[in-house]
Design brief:
Blueprint: E1 3-7, E2 10-13, E3 18-25, E4 33-39, E5 46-51, E6 57-59, E7 67-72, E8 77-82, E9 91-98, E10 110-111, E11 115-120
Length: 121
């Protein structure tokens, strides 16, 4: 059974940085795509960044140049380095995984429980 566990969220002031991690377990092999999504209260789930198993990354325009997605296949871990955080980045952040490259669309088969990021002004 595939399990995704996020960590690294917290509260930070505007302009600060956080690094989110997502550890995947139970997935056969390493040829799966992963993504980071976020959902603010009252809003839909938004794709933030995604990465294929061959390390091709895709980013949402709203975070381009501020966030970086990466993965460590040896440790089955996905990362999201978030710099220059803004209050509008406040949301629950989720990681997702699938063998299909869904990019920034929330069609992934497996999801974590989320980690809260709060950016104060």
């Amino acid at each position: 059974q595939v399990r995704l566990v996020e960590s690294g969220g917290g509260e930070v002031q505007a302009g600060g940085s956080l690094r989110l991690s997502c550890v995947a377990s139970g997935y056969p092999g390493t040829r799966y795509c992963m993504g980071w999504f976020r959902q603010a209260p009252g809003k839909g789930r938004e794709g933030v960044a995604a990465i294929t198993w061959y390390d091709m990354a895709t980013y949402a325009d709203s975070i381009l140049g501020r966030f970086t997605i990466s993965r460590d296949n040896a440790n089955n871990t996905l990362y999201l380095q978030m710099n220059s955080l803004k209050p509008e980045d406040t949301a629950m952040y989720y990681c997702a995984a699938d063998s299909i490259d869904w990019g920034l669309t929330p069609q992934y088969n497996y999801w974590g429980q989320g980690t809260q990021v709060t950016v104060s002004s």
